[in-house]
Amino acid sequence: MEHVYDRAAEDLGNIVHLEHVNLRIPDQRLATLFYVTGLGLTRDPYLMTGIGNMWVNVGRSQFHLPRGEAQLLRGHVALVLPSRAGLLRRLAAVRQDLEGTRFAVHEHEEYVEATCPWGNRIRCYEPQERFGPVALGMPMVSCDVPPGSAEAIARFYREIIGAPATVDDRDGPHARVSVGIGQELVFRETDRPIPPYDGHHIQIYVAGFSGPHRRLLERGLVTEESDRHQYRFREIIDPASGRPVFTLEHEVRSMRHPLYARPLVNRNPDLSTARYTPGHEALAWSLDPADS
């Protein structure tokens, strides 16, 4: 008898990759200390190498950190990093230089939460099964949303964007949206006050580029016609009523965009001049097959 596979488990949906989170930062020195030296990520050596913007690689994804008034993601970003112990050593080493900022480190059983100098929370996990065979990456962006909005947000992504989206009531109602292999957006309902939206954005690649654009345009939601490969929208609405439920700018790119699937450089942060081994400068974003 042939094996019966769950073919639906392999469905990805229209969003094929969450590529970057864009947050303005006022000081590249502090950003370098936190994102590069502390978290152990890698400044992109090829693009945005000046003082006006910095791109920081994390596996196949990035943080984009243009210079300006600090922006705050209303939630947190989850990262997969190879070693909790190595992360804690690096964060301890930058603590003194980040005194007087909002930098903080809190250890939890499953993750380490590191807060950047301007208050953005980064939850750092070691590789685990739920994130797939990833040793270094950005598996999740989680946003705090108003009570009663999770169902509408899930419908928006299913009906307007074409992405698989469900609502889960464990640990409070939240919408989960597939945005790539081992990647998701989470919108978690909260009674806490939600800060005003300040212009930060995320960037996604979609397989079906024109369908979401047409449906967004019909509803007056396209905010920027960037170029032939890209457009933007900000408002997530209830498709049934048209009522806005949450604001988060999405930079939407087609898979024909010149930057799609660009190989990103990731360094091994455990190397130093005192602990240098030739041939180990780079860090693979995927797990060794023996570990997956």
Q: Keywords, please?
A:
single chain, 292 residues, alpha+beta, 2,3-Dihydroxybiphenyl 1,2-Dioxygenase, domain 1, eight-stranded mixed beta sheet, 4 helices, 16 strands, globular
Question: Which spans of ≥5 residues are poorly predicted at pLDDT below 50?
Answer: none
The CATH architecture name of the domain at 17-203 reads Roll
CATH topology of the domain at 17-203: 2,3-Dihydroxybiphenyl 1,2-Dioxygenase, domain 1
Rg estimate, integer Å:
19 Å
Can you count the helices?
4
The string of secondary-structure elements, in order, is EHEEEEHEEEEHEEEEHEEE
State the oligomer. single chain
The percent range for strand residues is 25-35%
Structural class: alpha+beta
CATH class of the domain at 17-203, anyone?
Alpha Beta
- Roughly what percent helix? 10-25%
Widest β-sheet, arrangement of strands: 2-3-4-1-13-16-15-14
Average pLDDT across residues? 95
- The shape, in one word, is globular
The main sheet comes to: 8 strands, mixed
Question: End-to-end span in angstroms?
Answer: 28 Å
Strands, count:
16
CATH superfamily of the domain at 17-203: 2,3-Dihydroxybiphenyl 1,2-Dioxygenase, domain 1
Outline the structure in words:
This protein is α+β, with helices and mostly antiparallel strands and 292 residues long. It has a domain at 17-203: Roll (2,3-Dihydroxybiphenyl 1,2-Dioxygenase, domain 1). 15% of the residues lie in helices and 33% in strands. The chain has helices at residues 28-38, 84-94, 150-161, 210-218, and strands at 15-22, 42-43, 55-58, 61-64, 75-80, 104-107, 112-115, 121-125, 137-145, 165-168, 174-180, 183-189, 201-206, 222-227, 230-237, 244-254. The strands form two sheets. An eight-stranded mixed sheet has the order 2-3-4-1-13-16-15-14. It has an eight-stranded mixed sheet with strand order 6-7-8-5-9-12-11-10, covered by helices on one side. A hairpin with a 4-residue loop joins strand 6 (104-107) and strand 7 (112-115). It is globular and about 60 Å long. The chain starts with 14 loop residues before the first strand and ends in a 38-residue tail after the last strand. The model has no long low-confidence stretch (mean pLDDT 95).
